[in-house]
Amino acid sequence: MSFTSGVTRWRDVYVVAGSRAVSVCGDFLAATTLALVLQQSGHGGLAVSGLLLAASLPLALLAPITGRLADRADSRTVLTVVPLLQAGVCLALAFTGHPVAIIGLVALLACGLAFTQPVTAALLPEIAHPDDLAKASGLSQTAGNIGMLVAPALAGILVGRSGARVPLLLDAASYLALVAAALTLRTRRKGEKSREAPLARWRLRDDRTLTVMVGVLAATIAGVSMIQVVEVFFIRDTLGASTTLFGFVAASWTVGMLAGNVLFSRVPPRRITVPAVLLVTGGSCLPLLLGAAVPGPYWLIPLWIAGGVCNGGINVFTMVIVAGRTPSAARGRAFAALNAAVQGAGMIGLLVAGPLVETADPRLLMAVAGAFGLIMTLVSVPLVRREPPSDPHMSGSPPGRDSVAA
């Protein structure tokens, strides 16, 4: 039967949040483990860079395919079949030591993620009433951040005590847990080809305001990705921090994201607008610019927490904005396009940072990256301040015919 009651299924929200925590923890556990394996085996930065690219490139390249599939396939089918295949890939990784084979298998894992991410993202607005979507998104983002915090430390402990095989087997088990979670979800999107031609031909660039927002987010992600490479040289070499202090600084951004998820999930839906997204995006860039001028590493901790708080706001607001401005039947394509832009920008940032860090001062690179993101957001706010009214079919509409209760 159609799920048209307009009532949030909180049980399903908690299932999605729990599965996100398990998924993110498993993915970061595997990524950290494989990076350690390559480093301990004597392979250099080229192999690690190849690993990072293999984990990102499929999400950008496959977006046109995975977005359409997310809108046409049964969500339960995708969320059970694909993780089963990913579990098999993880089992193969646990018994593989050659760097080329490792990178190839990681690319296969990322292909699976390219299919499941837009399905899960499009499913959450069908589970939650529009008035509760920010809270539901905040819960999901918080669960993912917890998994992100736990995974690196867990990987270090497990690799040190038992080698790489155990954490990779745990990652395989996490995919089996995702299958179990998918089977317990009562809400599912049934993929039906839309009978309305405008929805069948919907593209992200048809919405100018949404396109501007995604473009600014992509530019900011490129700068943040570049800083992920630069900060280790800035914090360790320029500021003279110990490895322990570096770990605390790096983790403080994620701590801020946790706080931001809780804080911004309480914002009333009417206040969640595209200009608001751009303002919190600028807020995430300002600490990077200020951080370039600090005299010591301890100053970065409160700045990184503040940046993480705004980053949490970006995650919550983006979910609400994309769901509100996109037809229900096209949300898989919308979230796939968003993922493609973010992943593509992240890869550009990583690729640009490598050569730059060899020739430029890390402090200067920090300032340029932060200033670039801040300027982009400030320039874009006037472009979207006068938003065109959303189509009632696209904004705040309750789940329709493609959402059913099982």
From TrEMBL:
Cellular localization per UniProt = Cell membrane
Q: How does it sit in the membrane?
A: Multi-pass membrane protein
* Alphabetical list of SUPFAM superfamilies matching this protein: MFS general substrate transporter
Q: Which residues form a coiled coil?
A: none
Q: Name one GO molecular function term.
A: transmembrane transporter activity
Swiss-Prot/TrEMBL keywords: Cell membrane, Membrane, Transmembrane, Transmembrane helix
Q: In what residue span(s) does the Major facilitator superfamily (MFS) profile domain sit?
A: 1-385
Q: Which GO cellular component terms are attached? A: plasma membrane
The answer, when asked if Ubl conjugation is one of the entry's keywords, is no
Keyword Manganese present in the record's keywords: the answer is no
Which parts of the sequence are annotated with region: Disordered? 387-406
Q: Where are its TM segments located? A: 12-38, 44-65, 77-95, 101-124, 136-160, 166-185, 210-235, 241-264, 276-295, 301-323, 335-357, 363-384
Stated name of the protein: MFS family permease
